[in-house]
Here is the input.
Amino acid sequence: MPFADLINTNLRRVPCRAVYIVCAIPALLLFFGLLTGGLGVDPIRRLELELGEWALRLVIAGLCITPLRRWGGINALGFRRAIGVMAFVYVLLHLMVWLVLDMGLRGDQIWKDILKRRYITIGMVGFLMLLPLAVTSNDISLRRLGSAAWQRLHRLVYPAALAGGLHFVLIVKGWPVEPMVYMAIILSLLAMRAVPRQATGRRASVAR
Amino acid sequence: MSYRFKTDLRWSDVTPRADFLNRRQIIAGAAALGLAGPAAAKLSYVPSAYSTDEAPNTLEEITQYNNFYEFGTAKEDPARSAHLLTTDPWAVRVEGLVDKPGTYDLADLTAGMTLEERIYRFRCVEAWSMVVPWIGFQLSDLLNKVGVQPGAKFVAFETLVRPEEMPGQNYGLIPWPYREGLRIDEAMHPLTIIATGLYGEELPKQNGAPLRLVVPWKYGFKSIKSIVRIALVEEMPPTSWNMIAAREYGFYSNVNPEVDHPRWSQATERRIGAGIFAGRIDTLMMNGYADEVAGLYAGQDLSKDY
Here is the structure.
């Protein structure tokens, strides 16, 4: 697959730091917009929504790495940690904006909302599932846990992605397209994981 | 050379700098007061005792942040595409249990109405709010003009359907036309108005030109925009959000901090324009109009009749 080889050769030249920097750009632009009044009439809502959407996009990007390698022969494995860590950063910023700017730190209502509102409960569960993944996204944790246990732990990203998609679908009025598109992409990426190994070309030839 | 631009203006025709600066000052001053708009005409109106003394939101906030799904679901969509809408001529069909049914030209329907400024709190079901200086007249005046017959128990309203001018109507999110309704006592209440203006000018298109309902003690979606049909009916009419999700949006939809939306709390709200660290304010019963309207619902269980 010469095309995939070309991409892989070029991907190898990209340092991981570049991924962190590129992923930080939307947050920096939003922060700049917040300071300069560029986020429209309701900057809090805009900030909250965009940070949440970027979190979803990065979670989706992270989920694309394995299918890309399996079906496209493209190896972007080296960027997965950076993408994952940045996805978590966006989730954390989204949560902070909700707590501080949107809810104004009203503890009683925040607590009630987390327990009572399905989309908030689901969102919080998703955040809690991402927390151990963010904490163990370093070489020391990987070594301590061992590769197998680390991988098992990091499968938590599947339910976390579902929670994120559902969180978005449940918050909106009616059935607008965008949240449904995110949900559909997440579901297809998860479904790809369920395709048995034998079904892919490479393994099939071995099995024969 | 024959195509060369020639002018018969002379230097003496140029407006002196002092004069045009002065002109700009007048325009800028008027704009700052929210009184100037290129196409809008100044309305004459009287103040009203029903106005709140809270500071109104800016014209920019009121006109750039709208839920008007006929123009798209994003808050910025109406400001972007509402200019496509033709609001003149405008006809309103009045029918059902009325003495003088018919299709009225807007000017005929609103002739003789006293325009008042009503500065009302406006609370969206999405838990944000504004304060809006509407210009309008009481719906009761309009209903009395067309003559309500004794059998009429509800008023049904419909928004225009014109997909070529309302791009959002090309999507089936809401079964068009957008429909709303009031019980007759709610419709006749002096707080209920038909707004035709905002900040002293004609109503901007994204805010529901040329005429819209404003019911300040109910969630914003009850205040239907760009009305083309008013029908007096005997049965409770179907209303759009109730048709889409009956469990979430009741026919009454009175602002009520004690009755939550099934998916979010209605106890507090975020006042648009209050600043990024302003946090939330407590939502008031009936949006602060309980003294005037709570009596309409005496004996009703508001957690059931939400």
Q: What stands out?
A: The longest helix of chain A spans residues 43-72. Chain A touches chain B at residues 34, 40-45, 101-106, 109, 112-113, 116-119, 170-171, 173-176 (CB under 8 Å).
